[in-house]
Amino acid sequence: MTQGWPARLREGSIELRPLRLRDATAWREVRSRNAAWLRPWEATLPPSEGHASTTYGSMVRRLRAEAREGHSLPFAIVADGCFAGQVTVGGIARGSLLSAYVGYWIDQRYAGRGIMPTAVAMATDHCFRAVGLHRVEINVRPENSASLRVVDKLGFRAEGLRENYLHIDGEWRDHLTYALCDEDVPEGVLARWMASRVSPGT
After folding, report:
1. pTM check: above 0.85
2. CATH code (residue 164)
């Protein structure tokens, strides 16, 4: 068993659990219905790397292998009992770095309801507490206003621009980097986010 994995995390009607092979039908339906909405933010392979033809099954098996090796935490988001998206903690590095990055996407039907900030907060807290990481970063295209709202709501610190950082939607794209360290949020990211939702004026 890898440190902090497998894991099931819950806050109200929102659950994070390991992505599984039997999610295939729901995953394909959600991805198909949201294709146009997700495409501008989807990672692609540069021409030098050929063309990806990954099946859902092969993706899950690869992510499972990475999780067993301690390199990733591939979570499915379940909202009100329905498959709603993914949060993936990747690039887990141990030793003197103790860092990882978080990537995420959500079914447009569930956008704007606080589900994604809650899911990312749960995953980040899990990284700090159960996995033992020191730093978590999120990289966002400057044009991705929905994702920028997530990092803003959770209080991730802006660290600057990475030019031509990732191959997204067929081109190399700039990304803004945001990060938190465990000492930044002694109360926990989820607790801080939940408190901000009930504070006057929020």
Report:
1. yes
2. 3.40.630.30
